[in-house]
Amino acid sequence: MLEYCAYSGHSHSKLVVRKNERNSPIYAFFEAPRLVNQKGRPAHEFKCARQGCAATVRRYLNKKDAGSTGNLCKHAKACWGGAAVDAADNAASVDEVRKAIIPNVLKDGSIAVAYKLKKGTTTYSHRQHTREQTKGFQSLMKTGRPAYYIPSRWTVSRDVHLVFAHTRNRIATMLQKYNGKVSFTTDAWTSPNHWAFIAFSVHLEHKGVPLSMPLDVVEVAKVCDSLTLCCT
Q1: What is the DSSP string of 58-79?
Q2: Nucleus: present as a keyword of the record (predicted)?
Q3: Alpha carbon distance 50, 79 (integer Å)
Q4: Does a structural domain hold residue 122?
Q5: DSSP readout, 161-180?
Q6: In terms of domains, do 57 and 68 share one?
Q7: Is residue 19 predicted with pLDDT exceeding 70?
C-alpha cells in the first residue's frame, strides 16, 4: 500500500492508493514511475525510456481510470513507432519486450523481432500506398531513427530524371572524345508477357580497365517470325 497526502487549503486529508502491478507490455517503453503531488493530487509520473526523449506521462491516482494505459500507448506510438508497440502487444511480458524488442529497435531501427512474435503467415502487398498508408510507412521507416528525412515520391522521381540526364550527357561526351576503338553490341529478347525488347551497349577500354555499359533499351514494334524472316 502507498500512502499520499493531499492538501486543500488548510485542510489535510490522506489518500491511500493501491499500487498497480504494471504487467502490461506498454510499461517496457517507460522508466519506473516516480510519485509526484500535483496541486494536492497524487500521481504516477512515467518518463519515456528512449534516449533523448524527455517526455513524461502523468497518471492521477485519485481517478477511476488510475490504471489506464491510454496516454502511455499514445506517446509510445509517437516516439517508438506503432510497429514496435504492436510487436509489444504480442509479447508475453514486460521483460520479454525489454529483452527482445527494444534492443532491436535501439540497435538499428529494425523491428524484425515483431515478425517472429506475430502468429500466422506474413504477407506483402505490392500495391501503391495510399496517403494514410504512406503515413504508416514513414512511421515504420523512422522507427529507431525519428530524425531521418524521407523524400516524397515526387522528389525521388525528379532526382532520378536529373541523374539520368546528367549521366547520359557525360557518357555522350566521353564517347565523342574517346581516342580509340569502340565496340557496340545488341541483344534482343522476349519478356514473359510476350513483349519484345532490344538493347544497345558499348564496350571500350577506359584507363586500362575494360568498360561496358548499356546505352538504351527499346521495345520492338513488330517481331519477325520464321516465315517472313523480315519485317515490312
Answers
A1: EEETTSTTTT--HHHHHHHHHH
A2: yes
A3: 8
A4: no
A5: HHHHHHHHHHHHHHHHT--S
A6: yes
A7: no
